[in-house]
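Module 6 notes. Inverse folding takes a fixed backbone as the condition and produces residue identities as the prediction. Think of it as a translation problem where the source language is geometry and the target language is the twenty amino acids. Below is one complete input and output pair. Work through it position by position during the lab.
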């Protein structure tokens, strides 16, 4: 695993099981793959993975202030909302929580990447469409970066079942390179814009510090 370099700027990933390597061997999830890419490309950022399996937008909103104070990230990746939708929580509340998290990170001096999700149409076409659209609305309102769908090329593949674990909710390790590929273009723009200290350094990245275990 890449070694942490003192003074590297921080990327904080605030997500749920899709970012917390639920059901996967450690080091095979998209956040761990991000660390390796940063090291390979000599981009001086370390990663703090504060993702917790089963987390929701209210949970992320309550945890974020302490994480911002502790890690002082230059970039915050928010990957939450999927569990809210699976529980049928009100869309207005999800949108408000995402907006409040985005604004809190911005006020702390971080650039934000909002990572969108979708839910199956069996939750109701109207609910599903409005849920997938609220990420773009939050991003537009708060002038922040957006990945429209983390599981693009995975959940909408010709045979999506082969890319998921037996629960058909959590992607297999084979899907995580595609998930990183979905995130990377927008994240790389934020990293370039953040102008991390000592851009000419040869070492970068760190082992993500994990905060949370399997969903119960």
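Target side of the pair, the amino acids:
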């Amino acid at each position: 695993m890449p070694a942490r370099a003192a003074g590297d700027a921080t990327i904080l990933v605030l997500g749920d099981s899709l970012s917390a390597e639920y059901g996967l061997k450690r080091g095979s999830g998209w956040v761990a793959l991000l660390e390796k890419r940063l090291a390979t490309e000599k981009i001086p950022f370390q990663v703090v993975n504060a993702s917790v399996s089963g987390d929701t937008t209210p949970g992320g909103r309550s945890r974020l202030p302490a994480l911002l104070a502790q890690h002082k990230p230059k970039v915050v990746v928010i990957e939450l909302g999927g569990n809210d939708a699976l529980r049928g929580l009100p869309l207005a509340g999800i949108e408000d929580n995402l907006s409040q998290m985005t604004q809190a990170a911005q006020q702390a001096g971080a650039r934000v990447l909002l990572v969108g999700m979708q839910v199956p149409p069996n939750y109701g076409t109207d609910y599903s469409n409005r849920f997938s659209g609220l990420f773009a609305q939050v991003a537009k309102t708060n002038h922040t970066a957006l990945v429209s769908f983390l599981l693009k090329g995975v959940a909408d593949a010709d045979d999506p079942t082969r890319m998921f674990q037996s629960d058909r909710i959590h992607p297999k390790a084979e899907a995580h390179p595609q998930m990183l590929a979905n995130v990377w273009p927008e994240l790389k723009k934020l990293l370039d814009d953040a102008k991390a200290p000592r851009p000419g350094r040869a070492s970068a990245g760190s082992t993500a510090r994990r905060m949370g275990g399997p969903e119960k």
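Reference fact for the lab report: The first strand starts at residue 9 and ends at 15.
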